[in-house]
Design goal:
Elements (H helix, E strand, L loop, with lengths): L2 H27 L19 E2 L9 E2 L8 E6 L4 H16 L3 E7 L3 H11 L5 E5 L3 H6 L6 E5 L5 E6 L4 H16 L1
């Protein structure tokens, strides 16, 4: 191989690297970030017991998540998208009668209490996950995340990001109805 041929091949190397990286990132852009896979689908919720965020109020434990279909919503007072979805959670609990449990993620209990006092409390109970270990066990990428839990305490669906009306109508409520039969 001549020196001129090697020089031309070396000039094509950056182009080849660019095309491979561009293809990789283009493929990543076609995926919906709210549909992150979870290895916990159809598996029991992680075993945990969290203290409540309110003094004397109920905490949350994995044993509380059996017997009926429930939602577990992981939220924080410092989370702006959590504030966006909160009115929807209030309506869901009040109008649809869905049992929602909260896990307050890496937050001060007093901040969580203020958040719930200001915006309303749609939760049956709220556990304080101060160090984020329970959220890690659930596989949480960030807040908010919402999980549908069946009667046996198995995770049946994971929603990443704030819930929107179409998420409830197209996915969450139909699944809750199906699992409640």
């Amino acid at each position: 191989m001549s020196a001129a041929t090697r020089h031309r091949l070396l000039l094509l190397l950056p182009l080849a690297v660019f095309l491979v990286l561009g293809g990789y990132f283009a493929l990543g852009l076609t995926r919906d970030p709210s549909k992150l896979p979870s290895v916990l689908i159809d598996k029991p919720v992680p075993v945990f017991a969290l203290p409540g965020v309110t003094e004397g109020g109920p905490g949350l434990a994995s044993t509380d998540l059996t017997g009926q279909v429930r939602l577990v919503n992981i939220f924080a007072s410092w989370c702006a998208p959590c504030r966006v979805e909160h009115p929807l959670l209030m309506r869901l609990a009040k109008e649809k009668g869905v049992a929602i449990h909260g896990i307050n993620y890496k937050d001060k209990p007093e901040a969580a209490r203020t958040f719930l006092a200001q915006l309303g409390d749609p939760y049956v109970s709220v556990g304080a996950d101060r160090d984020g270990r329970v959220a890690i066990d659930f596989g949480v990428y960030g807040v908010p995340e919402t999980y549908v839990i069946d009667r046996q305490g198995r995770i049946r669906h994971r929603h990443v990001g704030p819930l929107m009306p179409h998420d409830l109508e197209e996915t969450i409520l139909p699944l809750v109805r199906e699992l409640s039969r």
